[in-house]
Amino acid sequence: MPISRRNFLARAGQAGGFSAAFLLMQSLGLIEAAELRPLDVAPGIGKGVSVAILGGGIAGLVAAYEMRELGYACTILEARSRSGGRNWTVRGGDTVEFIDGSRQLCSWDAGNYQNFGPARLPSVHTAILGYCRKLGVPLEVEVNTSRSTFLENDAANGGRPVVQRQVINDARGHVSELLAKCIRQGDLDQDLSPDDRTRMLDFLRHYGPLDAAGAYVGSDRAGYSKLPGAGNDVGVLNKPIDMHTLLDENFWGGILFEEAFDMQATMFQPVGGMDRIPYAFARALGQTVQYNAIVTAIRKSGNGVRIAYTHAGQARQLDADYCLCSLPLNLLRNIPNDFSAPYREVIAACEYAAAYKIAWESRRFWEQDYNIYGGLEYVSQGCNPVWLPSGGMFSERGVLVSGYGWGAFTDLPLDQKFAESRRTIERLHPGHGKELQKPMYVGWGLVPFNQGSWIQAFSSSERGLDAPPGPGYETMIQPDGPIYFIGDYASRLNAWQEGAALSAQRAVQLVSDRVRAQRA
Ligand code: PHE
To answer: Is the domain defined by 89-149+264-270+353-446 classed in CATH 3.90.660.10?
Structure first.
């Protein structure tokens, strides 16, 4: 029996698990390979060269991992007792402690967790995915969008939520109908040849879909009010939402989110929590990572650097030929240093966003009562987006986010935040707000050793992927003598682990080029 490509992949997936299917798809050329781009560096170039790496987040870990391979003597100074930095997963038993002294104890069921920092890996982020492959971090699909999720707008449809598949497909149907009308009325005769007019009308009939008269009268793509079944159990289609309502409802942010280059399926997450990535690096690096090491001064000395730090209350120092510094710029402001004037100016002026997430444990009512599995939901007023879990589907309880953002909301007292967050769920899924339990709030502005989430002015999310980074960027990506600044902000992928990894690789390359030039 001939096997279709799709069946073949499904079978491979069953037999060998996800990675077998993944490798097979890659070998068939169906996905872009998450290969690490090799550095252009002679093996062993780092022998006899020492490097102080400040911060054990993704940038510092990648730098140490690559430099050790090249023979450099590396030390990571990490202020916390864990690696990962903003890559932070909270589970039952963990405590969230803020700089204001407030504490929250997490008491979620075993297996439940929330990634309060990064929580998705685009398939186009080949560096970080390449490290996951190399380090053996098991990945699963992160469902970044689901057509079954809900959108709500107080001002339209009586505030009743609508399902995303209906908004997307009805909007497309209406636009197709209007375009077909223009073509038939001759409005586009200047723009389309007679041939292309026919072809375009034919395309719109399928794309809309439109009926023989060129009207959009609804479609099964937009979903059913009653599902079809066996025998004579006929399905009933949703009645199309009219264009006026769709325009009114301003749903576009929600339905277009998944079109962004770095938000498109397929997205991934490590099975069990994002922190599996830094912990895999830390395992590979062993003694290279010094925990509870708080940097107190960054000095240039001779041709290298002298880093002062405390370890378990004891003052220590580390001399090295080079320094790779990944500490947040807003904290570097307060650490005595020998940076040159242009760097000090950028560091003094930069502003960090303070992204937050609010997460709750609940019965998986979205799965059990609404057939929604993962994805993002949006309301017109409230805690956007709601982010439903991709892990542990079909288990009894899960952890959802309501919501994830940055801005004025961060100033509300905690109980008001939680009340607003619960109201958001009530708007989208009336009657279920009360099922939310054990809320946890992480606002990165209050997290020790971060006090911010990402540099606002460098953010591609604000400025578009092609936009030039904010003022100061060009300074920060150049070394200040023996000191190289690394981190997501030193890349064109601000606020992504990929950016952190690429900036680290770049610094390894630049240092190695310099070492070679000095030896020549
Ligand atoms: N990488 C973060 C996220 O996925 C922040 C970000 C959001 C970056 C949107 C770019 C665009 O949520």
So the answer is: yes
